[in-house]
Amino acid sequence: MSLYDENLGLKEIQKLEGHTDRVWSLAWNPATGAAGVPAVLASCSGDKSVRIWQQSSPAGPFECKAVLEETHTRTVRSCAWSPSGKLLATASFDATTAIWEDVGDEFECVSTLEGHENEVKSVSWNASGSLLATCGRDKSVWIWEVMPRNEFECVSVLQGHTQDVKMVQWHPLVDVLFSCSYDNTIKVWAEDGDSDDWHCVQTLGESNNGHSSTVWAISFNASGDKMVTCSDDLTVKIWGTDIIKMQAGDSDATWKHLCTLSGYHDRTIFSVHWSREGVIATGAADDAIRLFVENKDGLIDGPTYKLLLKKDKAHDMDVNSVQWSLSDDKRLASAGDDGTVKIWELTSRA
Residue 251: what pLDDT? Predict the structure, then answer.
């Protein structure tokens, strides 16, 4: 199946029901879904709970395997699995981030991270699982070091955003952290080799072709040399860097605006995710999911992207999260204000 086939469709495989309020965020467990291990997906909601969905068999339907509740006292806004798939971090409007461990089919809250003044909006693990980042409405970004015996130590509190921070995302290859905010900017944070202090090394704002309204989400392509961001300004932006320089720790490895996808969305874009195969998915306030791919013809002025397909009425209300499976390039999960999670498959329409 070619991604440049005009006859691609997004087929709904399953609708997962159980949450009693909007579903905010999704995360595929990276240790599942391949080598005969059934895929596992976590979802979190305004109903203060997290649900763990697991395939009954490697090709079977998803079933709710666990409900993580009675820990968070308000909305659970974000969830993320550690790279090993053993720990799940959940960020809540109750100002805490909980760490859950899968202990023989039971999920146990093994640690609670406190420090944010109010709502925690997002949580992200670095590629090795040694660091965790959180951000929140208090405009701060926190970096936590993972210690033995499920202890977490705050190593840095980063102040720099002037408004609510919507999302944190670690780079997939290098320990560099990205955050995006209601202040319309994306900030890049790195550790100073000499002092071990984290600091802002770049701010991508309107003055350097950045967004003109709230930036909701960030995602990276598989090779880590491109980043995609989405915004309340109704655009998706693609950014690029010199990944060789970045991996070498070269301070010249800055991010530059490559192109802007405008005219495709007429409502806020809440979520964007780049599949390992190169397909960008967006979820927006018009209840639709859109897929974009790079145009392979005409690379004279840098990359351009085209709309591969638009799935209208993907949910009955806003689409808050789209997440490609890490093990199956054709599988996409989405979550919405309608309280449902949906599993989709990218198919060729014969």
Answer: 75
Rounded CA gap, 273 and 321, in Å? 9
Q: pTM of the prediction?
A: 0.96
| Angle of CA points 231, 232, 238, to nearest 5° | 20
Of 256, 89, 244, 91, the closest CA to residue 186 belongs to 256
**Predicted local confidence at residue 3, as pLDDT:** 61
> What are the φ and ψ backbone dihedral angles of 26, each rounded to 5 degrees?
-135, 155
Q: Closest by alpha carbon to 171, among 157, 190, 154, 153? A: 190
Contact 152, 165 (CB under 8 A): no
pLDDT lower than 70: segments of the chain:
1-6, 194, 298-300, 350
Find tokens 């590629």 and name the residue: 127
Contacts of 164 (CB under 8 A, 6+ apart): 121, 136, 137, 139, 181, 182
**Structure tokens of 214?**
């709230």
Distance CA 122, CA 133 (A): 8
Q: How many whole angstroms separate alpha carbon 257 and alpha carbon 210?
A: 7
Q: To which residue do tokens 């780079």 refer? A: 171
Give 104-169 as a DSSP string: TTEEEEEEEEE--SS-EEEEEE-TTSSEEEEEETTSEEEEEEEEGGGEEEEEEEEE--SS-EEEEE
Residue 95, C-beta contacts closer than 8 angstroms, at least 6 positions apart: 114, 116, 117, 118, 119, 120, 136
DSSP H or E stretch at residue 243: helix 243-247
Residue type, 44: C
Classify residue 47 by its DSSP letter: T
Tokens of residue 101, six digits: 């461990």
Phi and psi of 206, rounded to 5°? -60, -30
Distance separating alpha carbons of residues 319 and 22, to the nearest angstrom: 10
Q: Is 14 exposed, middle or buried (0-12, 13-18, 19+ CB in 10 A)?
A: middle
How far apart, in Å, do the first and last CA atoms of the chain sit? 11
Euclidean distance between CA atoms 348 and 345, whole angstroms: 10
Rounded to whole angstroms, the maximal C-alpha distance in the chain is: 59
